[in-house]
Hints:
Layout: H1 8-11, H2 13-16, H3 19-34, E1 37-38, H4 46-50, E2 58-62, H5 87-100, H6 111-115, E3 118-122, E4 127-128, H7 140-153, E5 159-163, H8 165-168, E6 180-184, H9 201-211
Parallel strand pairs: 2-3, 2-5, 5-6
Antiparallel strand pairs: 1-4
Amino acid sequence: MVNIGNRWDELLADQFEADYYIKLREFLKYEYSHFNVFPKMDDIFNALRATGYDDVKVVILGQDPYHGARQAHGMCFSVQEGVAPPPSLVNIFKELNSDIGMSIPKSGNLSAWAKSGVLLLNAVLTVREGMAGSHRKQGWEKLTDRIIELLNEREKPMVFMLWGRPAREKARLITNKNHLVLECAHPSPLSAYNGFFGCRHFSMAAEFLKQNGEDIDFCLTK
Length: 222
C-alpha cells in the first residue's frame, strides 16, 4: 500500500483503490522485476512527501523521470547529489540566472525548492532505463490529473508552471481563477529557444505570490 505520510494519503485514497491504479501497480511489479526502472520504488512519491497539499505554493510539471542511472529521485527536473545536471536543468538554471540573478549552482538537487512549497511533479512517475516515455498511458496520467484537480480546488492561490506540450495539456484542469497559470516551451535544448528562455516565470511567480500574501525563494545558491 502507498504511504506518503501526509494529507495526500487521505486525498488520494480513492485513487489508490481504483481499478486503473491496481492495474498500474501490476504493471509496475512486472517492470521493476524485469528491467531497471527509475526512480527507485521507495522514491516514486517523493514529490508528494516533500510538499504537502496545504503547503504547495508553486507546481512545476514535468513529463516523466530522467531515464539515466542515478539521476531520478522522484522530483521532476531534480537529480540526486553528485550527479551532473542534465541539459534541461542546466537551461532552467540559465533562466533563473537571467530572471532573478541566481548564480548557477553546482548541485542539481532541487529538494530545497520542494521543502519551500514547490511541488516538483511529473505527469508520469516512473520510466524504464534508457526509454523516455516508456511508462506513459499505463495509468499515471489519471493519478496526476487528480492531483492537479485537487490543487485546483484549493482556494489559497498558487502558481502552475506548465513547460512543454504534455504539461500544457493539463491546463484544462486548472479552472480556479485564484491561481496563476504560466505556460511556455519545455527547457529541453530542443525547444528552450522557442519560448522558455526569457519566460521570466520565476519572477512572475514570486510577484504573484507576494501580492497574495505569500513568499517563495527560488535561489539555490545561498
